[in-house]
Design a protein that fits this description.
With 257 residues, the chain is of the alpha+beta class. The protein folds into 2 domains: 1-20 and 246-257; 26-241, no CATH class. 17% of the residues lie in helices and 23% in strands. It has 5 helices and 12 strands. Strands 3, 5, 6, 8 and 9 form a 5-stranded antiparallel sheet that branches.
Length: 257
């Protein structure tokens, strides 16, 4: 009897680990041509990193297909993680981690750097790092789920930080939270996440960032964003997460038949 209880216990644990995200549906993302020219197109940079034809930046990001988790987060295993800076258009962009459990939506109007540090967790890659930099870090064991952020520390307005998170629902919709000009309307997609484990090793993810306000109209005018998602590009390795396809109870039970 004791042995027969083990499959049931294992199935229960799998259900806890594989519970789907709050919303499961395709996320519409507008990716535009880079105002900096063809060499700065995201697809070009990804082809250089992975090889041509391996990943389509418009259709292969997490959230692009029905069944993908939305919003996105990683589970903290307590293991060391590695961040590799692939490219960065500006040295003022820093990368860090934040606690999903403690995070709240950013209203784009908070210029208190101390509050930002408390909220987001910590900087992983500072402005002094150059392209190709590799950093190993840990997320504290007290944090169960975490996400990554990109912050611009060299803003030319009165705000000390402009920051964007991998969980789009924590990003304000449109300029200063006044409403996005296009879908999605409930949180701007600023950082795209791609599963690149098959090419770069187990549990490796590619993050591509748009540091302009992605909720603006897409274009090349002063009040528009190009949404090229190639302003900052990095990988994170060693991170665990829930499956990209929602797991049903029937699928879990079938593993033990």
């Amino acid at each position: 009897m004791r042995c027969s209880a083990l499959p049931a216990l294992a199935a229960g644990l799998l259900l806890l680990a594989a519970r789907p995200a709050p919303a499961v549906s395709p996320v519409p993302v507008v990716i535009g041509p880079s105002r900096d020219g063809a060499p700065h197109e995201l697809q070009h940079k990804v082809n250089t990193l992975l090889g041509a034809g391996r990943l389509d930046v418009r259709t292969d990001f997490v959230g692009a297909r029905a069944g993908d988790p939305d919003p996105w987060s990683w589970a903290n295993t307590g293991e060391p993680l590695t961040l590799h800076l692939v490219d960065r258009k500006s040295s003022s962009f820093v990368v860090g981690w934040y606690s999903e459990d403690a995070a709240r939506r950013d209203d784009d109007d908070d210029d208190d750097e101390d509050d930002v540090e408390d909220l987001l967790g910590g900087v992983i890659l500072d402005s002094g790092r150059k392209r190709g930099a590799i950093v190993t870090f840990r997320v504290p064991a007290t944090v169960l789920r975490f996400g990554l952020f990109v912050a611009d520390t060299g803003c030319d307005d009165d705000r000390a930080w402009i920051r964007h998170r991998t969980n789009r629902t924590l990003n304000s919709p449109g300029p200063r939270g006044r409403g996005a000009a296009h879908e999605p309307y409930d949180g701007d997609v600023q950082l795209l996440v791609y599963d690149v484990a098959r090419w770069l090793g187990p549990r490796t993810w590619l993050v591509a960032g748009e540091t302009g306000d992605s909720g603006r109209r897409v274009g090349h005018d002063d009040d528009e964003t190009d949404n090229d998602y190639s302003d900052v590009l990095f990988t994170i390795s060693g991170a665990a997460t829930t499956p990209t396809v929602a797991t049903t109870f029937g699928r879990v039970k079938s593993l033990f038949r």
